[in-house]
Amino acid sequence: MQFKELLSAFIAFLALVNPFQKLFVTMALRDHYNRSELQKIVNRSNLTALMVLMIFLFVGEFVLSYFFHLQIYAFQFTCGLVLLYNGLMGLQKGTFLTIGDGMEIKDIIAVPLAVPMIAGPATITAVVSMPSMCGKWITVGAVLLAIAVNWLVMWFAEPIGKVLTKYNILMPLIRIIGLIVAAIGVQMMFNGLIIFIENL
What pTM, to 2 d.p., does this model score? Predict the structure, then answer.
């Protein structure tokens, strides 16, 4: 029974982390950073995202409620808006991340790579709420597995990207993923509004 719960939670987090989006992000970074720098970005962004998710998993609801006086629906709506913006960038511009001239590695690892692209609004909301449904340690295991898969996809982005480019499916996939990400953002905004209305 625990294995089924772990598998179900892992699949849910994998969909929320969305490694395919990170594949395209990593490929976009190749034009600005060398291989060594890119590996550092992949490692540090995934580690930072994992730390953020673990913090929210163990103390997220307490921190939001007692320190920032935020309700989960406000967090959902705002983060959904960020996700909508990222999705529209992928849909319209064919990229999920724009790198400015002279931008250093430290400028992109935490924001926007780790948060909100890896530890996105939907993922953070899930780590806050999922322990009540399937248990804290199953949630921890599912998050670790999802981040590990995301790290592998980003690490091997170059050979995967070459295959996608060879068969001319890279740009269509970017825009399809962008549409899905934007739709997830809209859904999160609606979910936040619904919870807000229910609490009135």
Answer: 0.75
